[in-house]
Amino acid sequence: MKSTILLTALFTSFCFGSYEDWTSKDGRTAQLELVKTTGEGDALAGEFRMKNGKTVTIKASDLDDAGSAKLKEAATKPAEAATPAAAESVFDAVLDGNLVKLDGKKLAKYKDAKQPQKFYIFYYTASWCGPCQAFTPSLVTFYNEVKPGNDNFELVLITSDDDEKAMAKYAADKSMPWPQLNLDDVTKFKKKFNHGVTGIPSVVVCDLEGKIVAKTTDLNAIKKIVK
Question: Which domains does the chain show, CATH number per domain?
Fold first, then answer.
């Protein structure tokens, strides 16, 4: 019974577009990354990674016919080196499910969010801030150059705007490629994590335990940390 409840919760809640579709016997589909297979025959199971870096083990017998066959096929292939799972982050409770990202000219829920392996870069900024407007294009260039294929970090914008339309216009005008924290959760974030920001723009690099590694707008210095 406990196993059934866990599977039901998993296939109800963890649907993220960056991973492959796996469907349970009762028809619930989740997007998970197969890390490895264990056991054989009736004991065959797969270890799957969820978006937050945690893993879950699912038996082949708990998957639909297609998923079970896919798992059996994977078990016959030589094992490949797996990408290290991300450790839990002190930021999980606030960030998970609360990120938005530019979609056209609007901000939409960011379903493909993936926790970084080592660092979060928090960008404190606002549409009404002149120095921010001047600095943001260089940060966009930095992100587009350093982020592709780099799971060491993710950049999350923390806004000082009080209107989502202003946030969206700012993001669209600057072609921001990164996610940002949903407006309703910004106050909670700032209360929980005091990064000592007294002016914007401000860029704060933190490890997953919340320790501030760097607080600088020197993008060359940040690049050396996250590469």
Answer: 2-75 (2.30.30.700), 92-226 (3.40.30.10)
